[in-house]
Design goal:
The protein has 175 residues and is an alpha+beta fold. 35% of the residues lie in helices and 19% in strands. A hairpin with a 7-residue loop joins strand 4 and strand 5. It is elongated and about 90 Å long.
Amino acid sequence: MEGTGDLLALRGDLCFPIEVKSTKADKLYLSGRTKDQYDAMVNEGERCHLMPLYAHRLKGVRGDSWRIFRVETSNLSGRLRQLEKWIPAFPKTRNGSNYLNWEDGMPLNQLIALLCSTAGAEAASLAGLTARSSTISPSALPDTASDVPQPAALSPVLRGRTQTNVLAELARRRS
């Protein structure tokens, strides 16, 4: 089916249809079938509120040979809207058509680091906890200190068993 890409990367809060291109040249101009694939990715991204990505692999490069590009869509929300500013969009030629320039893309390892980073997550969760704790007065909370069970006191016999030498116990059982 056109427009769905080669891969579908899923995580609980994110979904990326990914089209994979691999070339020897560092630039790939979209025309014919590749232009149709791009247009279909734009349509699917708009229809499903997703951020389609292109993964461009440059053959013959050592190290991270993958670069990531974002297909521009207008209706992103949530985490995808936040990621939009970090992932580069397709560069444009002088006449305004899109093309892939490997040099302009985001390295794959940076995309993975960006998706796995927790930058800002601690501040957001701390702000949420602070807001919730300020709305609840301490007097409204039930006293649970009396409900906590106290540990039972160990008799001298039990205390001696808990401190038994393991090797001596194994030797006793063997004989």
